[in-house]
Amino acid sequence: MYTILICDDDQDIVSALDIYLTSEGYQTIKAYHGKEAIEKVQEHKPDLILMDIMMPELDGIRATAKLREETNIPIILLTAKSEDTDKILGLNIGADDYITKPFNPLEVVARVKSQLRRYTALGGMDKEPGLLTVGPISVDDSAKQVTVDGDPVALTPIEYNILKLLMTHPGQVFSSAQIYEQVWNDPAYGSENTVAVHIRHLREKIEINPADPRYLKVVWGLGYKMEKGGV
Length: 231
Known about the structure:
The chain is α/β, with parallel strands linked by helices. The protein has two domains: 3-121, Rossmann fold (3-Layer(aba) Sandwich); 131-226, Winged helix-like DNA-binding domain superfamily/Winged helix DNA-binding domain (Arc Repressor Mutant, subunit A, Orthogonal Bundle), CATH 1.10.10.10. Helix content is 40%, strand content 20%. Helix 1 crosses helix 5 (105-121), helix 4 (84-92) runs parallel beside helix 8 (192-206) and helix 6 (157-168) packs across helix 8. The longest helix has 17 residues, at 105-121.
């Protein structure tokens, strides 16, 4: 049974999400600000976090950044704002997804299920097991480990899945929509910014110079690819 941490300073929202998630068979833990969420994560080790952005004491952005220093479990941000800057900021600091308020609780449940599937299966591309290598970058899918020049690199589940997808098909160009549909397993409506943010974050972890990448390349107007030899 999976355990979901719900963190929001609005007790009505926490209660509503608790009802829907427990009816789906999940266990829930409740927190009402970012500091409490961090304490609950350390104590209970949940499988996924639903995190509001605007909260007292410690907001969701700073709490997510702090959590990413210690764990890669999926984090879905809940925000009352619709501006792209809030969403992109959240993705940049390590969130896996976001949901804008007001939301349909059934959509939240669907997003939770989707993130848990990706987290536990790490991509669901088991037809390509073993070691994938491009230049100094290696993905050991059996161990779910990524190394660059032999040094381990900590990736979020989304970053891992994107990297594995591209390294499984070196030289092949994937559009933002194709990446989103295969990694997020959702329709790719307005997915360009979301994918771009994760690609940028991934480059910062695997490229020597993220501003001039040798391996994870953009093909302007078409999408992204992993260079076969990193030329």
